Amino acid sequence: MENKTTLDYVVEVEDLTVAYDAKPVLWDVDLKIPRGRLMAIVGPNGAGKTTLLKAMLNLLTSVSGVIRFLPGETGDSPKNKIRIGYVPQSGSVDWDFPATVLDVVLMGRYGLLGWVKRPGKNDVAIAKQTLEKVGMEKFSSRQISQLSGGQQQRVFLARALVQEAEIYFMDEPFKGVDAQTEKAIVQLLKELKAQGKTVVVVHHDLQTVADYFDWVTLINLRVVACGPVKEVFHEENLKTVYRSSGALLKSRV
Ligand code: ADP
Fold first, then answer.
1. Which residues fall in a coiled-coil region (predicted)?
2. pTM for this entry
3. Which residues have C-beta within 8 Å of that of residue 109, sequence separation ≥ 6?
4. Domains along the chain?
5. Within a 10 A sphere around the Cβ of 45, how many other Cβ atoms?
């Protein structure tokens, strides 16, 4: 079993409470995200998974508590700032302005360019290679608004990947994608982990989490458990969150 006290953490959340219209939807969240892991946030519909992700990204207003990003000894960006890649849920962004798929992916490079600079040949090459990785190279000159939800999701993934971030937050990256694309995305997640990146993924399918992730936070309006998948996915925890257990997992973890 892993010794949690010796782990190197990249994010620490303390006493986080989040409300919409003065109505709390997440209570007293304490959470530590270990560096270099694939961590899933799982729980039923309406459990507050997206809310937790957005709160950590500082995208919400009614938030109390502490969220700390901790730079590593090596590899993190200068000035102790951790570069964060975010893949929003498909359908959550309304593209009513003209932008091609390539334009959208290139947006991910701007943080690396500094002021005034425009993306150059190298950035375009990186964007194209990344579109190829997510199987979207044929769509690079299409308008993003013309794509399906699953296709947009892959473009957002490419946009996050070109950012060369240290930590990635992804909201349901498997939503609306076919089995082949799911495999390709799993492969990308593994590559990010192999590069020492931290990846936090909101996901609803416990089996995928059991198969591919090494860390999990189980939530239902509060954190029920957080730790290695094998420790967290046990009958009692799953019953607390879903009111049923084994049937949700096709095989034992
Ligand atoms: P999950 O991602 O686990 O499905 P969410 O974080 O999307 O859950 O939602 C948690 C709760 O907050 C739900 O009851 C949802 O209806 C509510 N909620 C989410 N977004 C908003 C919002 N913008 N305004 C008001 N309530 C919201």
1. none
2. 0.89
3. 119, 123, 126, 127, 162, 163
4. 1-82+166-252 (3.40.50.300), 94-165 (no CATH)
5. 6
The helix (run of H) or strand (run of E) holding residue 79 is: none
Question: Which of 16, 21, 23, 25 has most ligand 1 atoms within 8 Å of CB, for mutation?
Answer: 25
- What is the per-residue pLDDT across 130-143, written as a single tens digit (0 to 9) for each? 999 999 999 999 99
The residues of the chain scoring below 70 in pLDDT are 1-5, 73-80, 92-95, 114-116, 244-253
Residue 51 Cβ < 6 Å to ligand 1 = yes
Is the Cα dihedral 111, 115, 119, 121 positive or negative?
negative
**Ligand 1: which of 27, 29, 50 to mutate, judged by most atoms within 8 Å of the beta carbon?**
50
List strand residue ranges (DSSP E) for the chain, in order: 9-20, 23-34, 38-42, 63-69, 84-87, 167-171, 198-202, 215-219, 223-228
